[in-house]
Amino acid sequence: MPSAQPLQLSRLLLAALGIRLYTQHQDRIPQAGPVLLVSNHRSFLDAPLLMAALNRPIRFACHHYMGQVPVMRDIVEKMGCFPLDLPEHRQQTFFNQAVQLLQSQQVVGLFPEGAEPMVKQTLPKQVGVFQRGFAHLALRAPVQDLVVLPVAIVSDAEATNAAVPLRLLSFFDPSEPLFSQEGWHPMVIYQRVNLLVGRPQWISPAQRQHYQGKQAKALVTELTQQCRNEIDDLLRQGSY
């Protein structure tokens, strides 16, 4: 059984910051079983927001440097996150960790846009290019009844501050090219935010069977685009 501590900490953090959270389409949220959650990403608050909305602990894959900074490392561990490995080992270690969590009926959370929207300030309803790693995981993982759940985070009111110089972060993760530029890492603090849950997509045995050769590439492209389009549509729907 996953620890309930990340969910409790998420609720405490949102309450302490006075964030007003509204969730739409809650009937689409699976109440049990393995879930691969994908979402847009602009703030360090996205993980606790998604946990509070789903009412389930979520094991988020987070940036490598978060596991290197002493205080931050303790925070992400208590939140149930698992930092990604260095690039040369990242793909295999991530797959192994994620499969183990999904096989134990947990929720694994991924932000397919990567670190860029966190480092480069973006608009609330803007979504970038999705990396395809989550789709490869969903189609390749030996997990029965796996659900891919797209969720859109729509900020209605927020404040943005400068957190740390980007070059300082390169000390902890020199492999990240985004940290080699001038400027500051922005920190988005939501004040009022809506979470819109997309249509869940169950991975079928037939899809897994065809995950090979050219068919694999086509399936990955299709699943990636479906999830991005779903989140983009939800972002356009906006708020109440």
TrEMBL record:
Coiled coil: none annotated. Pfam families: Acyltransferase (PF01553). SMART domains: PlsC (SM00563). CDD domains: LPLAT_AGPAT-like. One of its GO terms (molecular function) is acyltransferase activity. Keywords: Acyltransferase, Transferase. Residues 35-156 form the Phospholipid/glycerol acyltransferase domain. PANTHER family: 1-ACYL-SN-GLYCEROL-3-PHOSPHATE ACYLTRANSFERASE, PHOSPHOLIPID_GLYCEROL ACYLTRANSFERASE DOMAIN-CONTAINING PROTEIN. This is 1-acyl-sn-glycerol-3-phosphate acyltransferase. The lineage of its organism: Bacteria, Bacillati, Cyanobacteriota, Cyanophyceae, Leptolyngbyales.
